[in-house]
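Bug report

Summary: structure tokens for tRNA dimethylallyltransferase differ between web form and batch submission.
Environment: batch mode, default settings.
Steps: 1) Submit the sequence below via batch. 2) Compare with the web form result.

Sequence submitted:
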Amino acid sequence: MCWEMRPQLGTTRRTIWRTWPVLCSHHKLSTSSHSAKKVAMATASPPPAEKKRNKDTVIVISGPTGAGKSRLALEVARRLGGEIISADSVQVYRGLDVGSAKPSAAEMSAVPHHLVDILDTTDDYSAGAFFRDARRATQDVLDRGRVPVVAGGTGLYLRWYIYGKPDVPQSSMDTTSAVWSELVSFRESGQWEEAVELVVQAGDPKALDLSVNNWNRLSRRLEIIRSSGSPPSAFALPYESFHEQHDTELTEASADGNCEAGKLDYDFFCIFLASSRVELYRSIDLRCEEMLVDTGGLLSEASWLLDIGLHPHINSATRAIGYKQAMEYLLQCRQNGGESTPQEFLQFLAKFKSTSRNFAKRQITWFRNEMIYQWVDASQPFEKVVRFICDAYHDRGARVVPESLEMKRESCMHRTRDLKTYRSENRVFRGDDDCSHILDWIRRTQRR
């Protein structure tokens, strides 16, 4: 058994999670110690022909909101001569800076960023568009001899980016127009349930799983049915196909030390930055308050969205966490003649925090099943985490996270006892006086 593998490989899900990134390297690992030494020597000094066969390495750094992934990606890119490709579904929009925790001008000057500020807020963005744009940016970075560092927490974007885009048919302009005509009356009258039932009857029962008023995804599902006669679920997903193949290979790899991830286009080195749930929630709560303390921050950006004619939940930008809640709150203030009470503001703040924490919980659940990621403890010294990633980039044989830096996936699972004791406490807006400047700003700007 080679040195990267631990005893009882494949016997527990935890061991599979830990060793998957090493097993699915494009370097074949040998079972005997003698062969392992030969592989190590070949890896350290491969012949020219072997170098050409090696895939380009792409670093992917993800994590729940508020975990610190942007800071980590920035430092890793700076040290490796890399460029950051944002995998954030909100940072693509111009003008949505504070609520998306967009990198500052100084940060983007220090390290080039891609897929930031590329769309107007009236536009929609999708996983398919991200796949196209991010893959193009990746190859552009590699062609210039730089290191791609993909950073963000949008799970579906990253899944398609790594494993590939589902091979669903493209809709013609005629189909798109026809579907729009079918759904427009439902959308204008707010009849979401009736529109979903239409799509279900057309042949897609999974439309019931969509979040309420996600009209773009509902339209896309109906377009696929009208174009192909089949629902989206009828088309193979590269992610599922890959895992069906390699779940078997993992079992075989425990015996012969060999697992080829040949169908992946790049050598992906994926990190998920995690922390204990309670510490993460505290960080998220403070981050929400900090986005609101300056009236030129999230509230100002939400007010601007309303001013240009947008409403909560009508497109990707206005569905974003923070913006949706802030727009709803400001609409209420406008209906009240620009007035708000401290209690109303604090209720909005509590809803913003709760929604953000729930989103982080969903991110953790999503990435817990993504075996290609190695989990790193965000509470460990920042320098040690950065050094591990940089060293692992240069040496594929050093890609298993040391136990001193590892975050056990099961430690991030929902623990009722811990979360029952958690209470959100305001650290900025402690009392009525702390939000008086917000209420003054609302009186000056939200009278309609």
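Above is the batch result. After comparison, the two runs are identical; trailing whitespace caused the diff. The longest helix spans residues 342-368. The two ends are 72 Å apart (CA to CA).
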